[in-house]
Amino acid sequence: MIIHKLEMYNFRQYIGLQEVEFSTDLDKNVTVLIGVNTSGKTTIIRAFEWCFYAKNGFEDPVLLNSEVRDNMNVGDMQEVWVAVTFSHQDSNGDKMYTLKRKYTYLCNERTRADGKLFVGLNKKPEEDLSLTYLQADGQTKTDIRRENISESIDRVLPQDLSDYFFFGGERISGIANRTDLSNAVRGLMRLDVLENARDHIKEALKKFSSNIDTSGDAKAQAAQDSLGTANKKLQQYKETRDNAQAEMEYYQKQESEYNVELSKSNVEQVKKAKEERDRISKALINEEIRLENAIRAYVDLFNKRPYAFFGMPSIKKSLEVLQEINDQVECVPGMNQDSIDYLINRKICICGTHLDPGSQPYQLVMQERRKLPPETIGAVVMNYKNKAEGYLSGSESFFTDIEEKYKEIRGIQRHIGELQDEAGEKSKLIIDDTDAKTIENKRHEAHTKYLEAKSDYDQAVIDIGGCQRDIRNCEDAIAKFAKSSTKNSRLVRYITYVSMVQEWLSDTYKAKEDTVRYELQRRVNSNFAKMYHGERSITIDDKYRVKYSDITTEESDGLKAVKSFAFIASLVSMAKDRILDDEEMQLGQVYPLVMDAPFSNVDEIHIDNICKILPKTANQVIMAVMQKDWEYAAVNLGEYVGKSYSITKDKDVEGKEIDTATHIR
Amino acid sequence: MFNTNFDITGVHANYLKDLCELRGNVADKDQHNNFKIFKAYIDAYILCPLIGYQYSRKGKMGSAADGDVGILAEQIVKRSGELKYIYQILMLIDEESEPDTEKRIYRAFNFSEKTEEDKAMVAENMQIFNEYFLGGVEVLHEQFVDECIDRDAYLLKMYQYTNMFNEEQDGEALKAGIDKILNK
Q1: A583 burial class (0-12, 13-18, 19+ CB within 10 angstroms)?
Q2: Which spans in A117-217 are helix H?
Q3: Which residue ranges make up each domain of chain B?
Q4: What is the full DSSP assignment across A263-296?
Q5: CB A427 within 8 A of CB A443
Q6: Which is nearest to A611 in space by CA: A590, A591, A635?
Q7: Residue A610: what are its φ and ψ, rounded to 5°?
């Protein structure tokens, strides 16, 4: 989307019709609106928001210009409207749209009391909304049906994302610190398109699978029943996990806040003790990991052919039995069980005796058979010994290995105990300072809560894993049954198709998401490095939150703003560069950046740096700035400015500015 | 032999759940959340018959209402080499079920299940094998689960149990004896 024109008619302090055409020049893509404080810069952002989403952010909800209002008599009607003309590219090419939202106010009261005028307007002004687009001939205008307008707008620029394009200086610092940016990132990169397709196909697959007729097969029926239960359980576990995760994050944040407070403590001893305790905490974490690994290795050792150790008496005895018997088993040389089986089958012995089952000759022959292994006893014994040797090899050190590992575990446990004692000592030092004492107690409490939440979280993750395995098993069982039954052959074919499409979508989604994460991190770091003077390394976590690698320091509002700029600039530039597009899929979109007083929290050096980057990242930059900020910004931004306006107020006869008669010129 | 699913029912199923690491999908996992000395049921299935024999302890399966555990054929087949070896040891040395040495040798080395007679014999032998297995499970349950209250206790017990065996049975001498027979 590129914004071409904004028209406002009697909108708030802007009297009459104001028209602002924005620069759409590729090289000079910046439009500036310069005004003094309270001149109405924020109103411009609000006009966009109202026009697009009917969002009315004003304290006094009446949008009609006050001067116009004051001149109304009972029964008079006055209009206020905002129209935005923008171009947007979709699968049918680039089109020019005009969105116009209009309120018509009716005056229903006009009184004067104590010399003060009061003009009453209808509470619910009549609303009119239209969205038209120009046909390819550039002349014909076509209306989009009223009921489809908000859906169309949502496709062009979803309201959820509008915060990232229409924002004021006071809002910007919060952006990169939000708890979950995944939706915004997916939306901007249009990954949501793929995600929706994937989810839809998943539902279809579920539906097909649940339609498989399992009647007549108890196992499949049971699998289908437990599938339902497992799916429900999975949902519950996921909820538990998410709750636990939110709790973990909450307490972790609390703890680090207390830590920051503690580090502000002026008492040198406390500071030092805290540093020491932090170091010990880190060491403790490492030792605990080491302990877990050692215990795992210990159990592994215990499970490594324990029978070769605990079975030694039996093995020895078995070998002795064979040793003893080796040359005692008398049997017909060269004869084997197959020979006897042949005779039994023939029912006549070599000597002519009948071998009827149950008869004495039969039993004698069978007794002989029992002594005849398929192999000769010598070979059998040899074989057995070889096998024994194989199974026993490597087990010689079973006991010493176990003993050593156990000693190692005890060693680590002792060390952990020492570290814990040490940490306790340091905590006591911190607690000597009374102010710090309260904070330290709170920190400790937060830490305990965090550990509890973490244990809940870990358990939920394990449960989810089990549930998912269960689900897979059930699905496999049902699929296996469906394949073998003819009545489901049609469904099986559908399922096969759907599964393949699903796999393709999942793979594509994943690959594209990886690209987004990687690129975002790269770009945020690079932009941050260009904007911020200090050295900071930034990582993007799984929820696309921006984090410093060193998290303990406190952030100023200015730093937050710089971080958010780096984030938004990166995101918009990725959309602009269409990093996800390929031959089969065009996901990229262009977005404008519309900013109100973006630099209000940022110091001069950073204004400089940010201005160097912004015009290059977005296709279109529109900003309303204060005169004093513009003086700094103009140095770097000047060459990119395609259009420039100033916001001014009419003056009365005495030269005083009239607040309600503002113009953009 | 050792190529089908194996179901354990009765109280021993619960003992096994106490001794072995459990998959996520075990319904009553929460009731068996103690520390585990075996990584999987199959590991217990291989060791316990010899433990049962060592302690002259046999067990009988109970009703599925009291507990139910299954080892998949896939797991059993994968370890069937070791299982058959343990089976052979037991068949060779268990004089209680067969005093005649020749017959013990025959049953230890005859895996064929061609004739009805063979089939019956193998079934009987498997019965013996499984009884010792359950006996071994009982023994280890008493030694570990009944004795240990927390992870550290289990870790200590694993060491103590190994150490006790080593001392009581004189592991060094046993090893030397076996090596001698194997002509090492």
Answers
A1: exposed
A2: 149-156, 159-162, 169-175, 182-188, 191-210
A3: 6-146
A4: HH---HHHHHHHHHHHHHHHHHHHHHHHHHHHHH
A5: no
A6: A635
A7: -60, -40
Enclosing H/E stretch for A54: none
pLDDT recorded at residue A224: 81
Burial class (CB in 10 A: 0-12, 13-18, 19+), A444: middle
Give the one of A313, A370, A470 whose C-beta lies nearest to B25's C-beta: A470
What Å distances lie between residue B66 and A54, B9, B11, B62, B143, CA to CA? 65, 7, 6, 7, 22
Q: Which of residues 453-482 of A touch B (CB under 8 A)?
A: 462-467, 469-470, 473
Lookup result for tokens 């304290």: A59
Is A341 touching B (CB cutoff 8 A)?
yes
**B9 and B66 in contact (C-beta within 8 Å)?**
yes
Largest CA distance in chain B: 52
User: Which residue ranges in chain B fall short of pLDDT 70?
Assistant: 24-25, 184
Q: Which CATH class is domain A2-20+38-156?
A: alpha beta
What digits encode the pLDDT tens for the residues A487-517? 778 888 888 898 889 888 888 888 888 888 8
Cα separation, B184 vs B182, whole angstroms: 6
For chain A, give me the number of helices (H) and strands (E)?
Answer: 20, 15
Q: Give the separation between CA B92 and CA A317, rounded to whole angstroms.
A: 8
- In terms of Cα–Cα distance, which of A99, A200, A226 is closest to A501? A200
Cα separations in angstroms, A194 against A185, A186, A199, A508, A542: 13, 9, 9, 8, 18
Listed in sequence order, the DSSP H helices in B55-115 are 73-78, 80-93, 101-109
Q: B171-181 and A312-325 helices cross at what angle (nearest 10)?
A: 30
A624: nearest Cα among A593, A662, A664, A595: A595
Instruction: Determine the Cα–Cα distance for residues A591 and A572; give it in Å rounded to an integer.
Output: 7
Give residues with Cβ within 8 angstroms of B29, minimum separation 6: A466, B22
Residue A416 CB neighbour total at 10 angstroms? 16
Q: What angle do CA B31, B33, B34 make, to 5 degrees?
A: 120
Q: Using DSSP, state whether A143 is helix, strand or coil.
A: strand
Cα separations (Å) of A509 from A142, A190, A193, A200? Answer: 36, 11, 10, 14
Tell me whether 0.90 is exceeded by the ipTM: yes
- Secondary structure element (H or E) that encloses residue A321, with its range: helix A312-325
- Residues B2, B5, B9, B11, Cα dihedral to 10°: 70
Q: Do B37 and A323 touch (CB under 8 A)?
A: no
What pLDDT sits at residue A376? 58
Residues B140 and B51: beta-carbon distance below 8 Å: yes
DSSP A383-402: HHHHHHHHHHTT-TTHHHHH
Q: Could you give the residue ranges of the DSSP H alpha helices within A66-116?
A: 66-70
Longest dimension (CA), chain A: 144
- Interface check B144 vs A, CB under 8 A: no
Q: Which of A147-161, A426-440, A522-536, B123-137 has the lowest mean pLDDT?
A: A426-440
- Region of residue A414 (left: phi > 0; alpha: psi -120 to 50; beta: else): alpha
Q: Which of residues 93-122 of B touch A (CB under 8 A)?
A: 93, 101-106, 109-110, 112, 114-115, 117
Which pTM value belongs to this model? Answer: 0.51
* Distance (Å) of CA A326 to CA A147, A355, A376: 95, 30, 10
Residue with tokens 């018509």: A104
